[in-house]
Design a protein that fits this description.
By secondary structure, the chain is an alpha+beta fold. The protein contains eight helices and eight strands; from the N terminus they run H-E-E-H-E-E-H-H-E-E-H-E-H-E-H-H. A hairpin with a 2-residue loop joins strand 5 and strand 6.
């Protein structure tokens, strides 16, 4: 570190004049004016980490950097956004916005498969299955609030397992099958529970 005296070149060049003082480490500090009309300038610097909470998540999981990421409270309660990364801010999401509004502005990709069902790409907005559950609960609350209808959701790492999981706790249920536990979940079911498996396919599978 450069000493103040070294930086100024000479003691006479001190901006405020007066005798020098010493830091705790013994190095000189410039003197302050004694009753003079020269006032030390008040200068502050403020440091603010950009999108801090979201940035920490991106450090832990770099794949999130290219996806909208929102950190906040419960979207179907009174939760608010603590912060959002810059991908999410493209949707107009900002700190202190209600999480319910943030979810409305930045929803997962929807694949409609019928009049009354479809798939949501929850991985676009949830980095893990715990947060995927929160998104699914928010979807249920939004559907009920907007239409007074109940819906059942299944959350899994594949569409097939998600479809079967959605049937498990009807009506109005939610079943989450974390990655790696698909076989444990599917084991007790008859093979006919698999979408598209009819009598002939069942016969072939049982051979």
């Amino acid at each position: 570190m450069v000493d103040w005296d070294d930086a100024c070149g000479a003691r006479a060049a001190r901006p405020w004049g007066g005798p020098s003082r010493r830091r705790a480490d013994g190095r000189a500090l410039p003197g302050l004016p004694r009753g003079s009309d020269r006032i030390r300038p008040v200068i502050f610097a403020h440091l603010d980490l950009d999108a801090f909470f979201a940035a920490v998540e991106e450090l832990e999981q770099p794949e999130l950097r290219s996806k909208p990421l929102i950190v906040g409270g419960d979207p179907h309660g009174r939760g608010v956004v603590a912060t959002a990364n810059y991908e999410a801010r493209k949707f107009g999401i900002h700190s202190a916005m209600s999480c319910a509004e943030a979810l409305r502005r930045c929803v997962p990709t929807v694949e409609r498969t019928g009049l009354d069902e479809g798939y949501l790409d929850v991985g676009e907005v949830a980095p893990d299955f715990a947060r995927a559950r929160v998104v699914a609960e928010a979807v249920q609350a939004a559907v009920r609030g907007a239409t007074s209808l109940s819906c059942s959701l299944g959350v899994a790492s594949s569409k097939v397992v998600a479809k079967i999981a959605s049937d498990r706790r009807k009506p109005g249920g939610l079943t989450v099958v974390p990655a790696g536990r698909e076989a444990e979940f599917l084991g007790p079911f008859d093979v006919r529970r698999l979408p598209g498996v009819g009598p002939r396919a069942e016969e072939r599978l049982r051979r």
